[in-house]
Amino acid sequence: MDIRLIAMDLDGTALRNDRCSFSPRLIAALEAAHKRGIAIAPITGRQFNMLPPAVQNHPEWENLTVLCNGAQIRKLATGEILYEKNICREALEQLLALSRELEIPIEFSVDSVLYLTQKSLDQQQGLVHLDFHLNAILANHGKVIPSLESLCEMAVEKCNLPYIPPHLHKKAEELLKTIPVSAVWSSKTSMEITHPQAQKGIALDVLCQLLDIPVENTLALGDSGNDESMLKRAGLGIAMGNAPDFIKQIADGVSERSDRDGAAIAVERYALNQ
After folding, report:
1. Which value, in Å, is the radius of gyration of the alpha carbons in the chain?
2. Same domain for 58 and 19
3. Quick one: residue 37, left, alpha or beta (phi over 0 = left, psi -120 to 50 = alpha)?
4. Are residues 21 and 157 in the same domain?
5. pTM of the prediction?
6. Which CATH number goes with the domain that contains 221?
7. Domain CATH number, residue 124
8. pLDDT in tens for each of the 274 residues of the chain?
9. What is the residue range of 222's domain?
10. Are 165 and 130 in contact (CB under 8 A)?
């Protein structure tokens, strides 16, 4: 297959376990792909100001990036927004009602700032699997405010439900089906909520239009629920070895785990034909 665009998820896929850097092998593979004229675009759930150093340090292949699971497409160098889909006021109000009913934490992202209440912050404290979110994301990009109600009139790019206890998973999914949003599991106990059309698969189509590249000539790399639509839409969708079974089953192929250079191996094999 003639790969002309590599669309790669970051956390759990391209990034090492530090969630900040690419391995030397992946850096070399991406540089080789760039020299062959292959475009490279991070497609992530992260917001622009929360991109990792591996991307913020302006690699030679930088051009466009998809953010917030497809809610935005921006130029990496300048941050200019080329495409965006924000959550509507009605849906935001319904999401707040859902968080109150289930008594789970909720966060609204506006211009790369995560707003939450003290109650939501307290509900997350002490949960070991949320250490990175608490210590790296909220500590640097979070803002505690008395209420999120006033934000319903603003351009909310993404909503996080950072901790949903297992016994509430089914109930949360049922309630979210009644709200006009796209909801995906980003981990075993957390969900990311966006505009119904803010999905990685849809954003991949828009990205291809901007770059004038047929979607059939794309290689997508991912590992979790928010990558499902992208892996299905791409010409070739490759899951990491650490992906859950349902992601592996919908992918066209499975590479090694992300911590064993799964992304680099996929680029070498499918884009560089090595």
Report:
1. 18
2. yes
3. left
4. no
5. 0.91
6. 3.40.50.1000
7. 3.30.1240.10
8. 899 999 999 999 999 999 999 999 999 999 999 999 999 999 999 999 999 999 999 999 999 999 999 999 999 999 999 999 999 999 999 999 999 999 999 999 999 999 999 999 999 999 988 999 999 999 999 999 999 999 999 999 999 999 999 999 999 999 999 999 999 998 889 999 999 999 999 999 999 999 999 999 999 999 999 999 999 999 999 999 999 999 999 999 999 999 999 999 999 999 999 8
9. 5-85+198-271
10. no
